[in-house]
Amino acid sequence: MTAARYLTMENTWRRIDTGARTVGVAERAALGTSARVAAWPAHQLPRVLAAVDTELALLDQQASRFRPDSEISAICRGASGAQGGGSRIVSEGLAEAIAVALAAARWTGGLVDPTVGGALCSLGYDRDFAAIRSDGAMPRGPAHVPGWQSVRLDGRRLRLAAGTWLDLGATAKGLGADRAAREAAAAVPAGGVLVSLGGDIAVAGEAPVGGWPVLVADEHWPEPTSQAPDRGGRPAPFPPQSRGQVVRLVTGALATSSILCRQWRRGGRTLHHIVDPRTGVPAVGPWRTVSVAAANCAAANAASTAAIIAGDQAPAWLAAQGLPARLVARDGSVRLVGGWPATDDGLLEPPGICRTPAGPGPVPGSVALAVPAAVDRSSPPGPARRSAGRTPPGPRRSPGARRWR
Amino acid sequence: MDRDDAERPGWVRLPGYDDDTGYQRDAGPWRGAASPRAGGVRRLRRASNWTAAALIAVVAAATGYFVHHASPATPTVTTVTGTAPGTGSTAGPGKPTLSSPVATSTGSGVVVTTGPGGVKTYHYRGDN
Fold first, then answer.
1. Are the CB atoms for A293 and A348 separated by under 8 Å?
2. Is the pLDDT of residue A344 over 80?
3. Given CB 3.0 to 4.6 Å as the disulfide criterion, which of A197, A285, A367, A372 pairs with A173?
């Protein structure tokens, strides 16, 4: 019998002393993870936090599939109900979140797919991560992934195929960081803001001299963890082997995806939350952690997730997009592409050329994720690209999926 | 250009004008035995000097007070106080310079560990 002990981070902002008096930093739990905000001048922090609170509350209400009272939960329940499918008008905020997710799906050739919600639920990730049962039975087979092309969004009118459960996890946090950073910077007369949602980071306004220093970490914490001290809920220091690299961000965003976080067990197997839509099961590939810098956090978030799924093709694809990336292989070796700095304190320079950020609009077909213009010219990784723009993908099973049946 | 308006209607000479020995400065008597008018002028000048000095002191004190206590309207007045060496400073027009990370980019910001007895512990990370 296992028991879960949850070290709760307070839902109210807690000031963090980073040693720099000119920058105010605060942190709290949000969206099932941690939110951290840094702002300068430090005296503007309260106004910045208020703006961030507003955006996080909106996003949570719109797009959290773990809240039964959220808008997306109600929509998915409707799509899975007796009537199934159908269309409905959604809020502008949720329409934007879905539009960004669909644009990311198109950009990545379907490797990042918002219709994997059902697959995640069947694997046990059907509630807030902290509440997942420690173990349980594996499903009999991989869940059906309806495919992003089955989702129709025309302005605020959304149509889902029957049985579709949306999961915006690959883009929503990034979008939230983008929204929060933008609104927070607009709420203050001068200075700069950094917003991190679970490690997906967006900056806005003026950066400090030399950029915002950010630690890019590869969370590799061996189990069982005698090294993991209980510090009363406070984060423990990183183990030396996962110290990571410090980079500096002046503009744009930075996101990290990893199969080492959000792991749980089913049927004696360790699962993680990055599901390959081609198989309906957690991705199996050479990378355990991928960090990507992009013009905005939604794009960085989508690219880092797609790279985990893309596997061997990820470095070439990221380089073709002009996206600086740091890929950590399962054996701990690190590969840098796209101009990612080779040394500590190096400057990250995500591509500044981007399209207008996505807003509610006709999808699929014309909404573009705010990514470099080169996106559409290169070949996204993965065989899913071959079917992009044609028929929605049906149930697909890979050898990897059959193995655990 | 000097001009004597003593003869203009309505003008009255100062008392002791006629006794003014100012024109005898070359002889030196004005230094020790100043006329009433000259003494008045000196007192007035002395008082003006003290008044000006007092005003300057008050203005300087007020300026210093506001510089140190008023909320900065722009980042240009952001200062570093009590910062440990090497952890932060300002440079340029109020922009801070940071030498330590203010955030961490990790996968989803959560790591789960399992301790003795299968106790799962959820560590929210994202800072260090």
1. yes
2. yes
3. A197
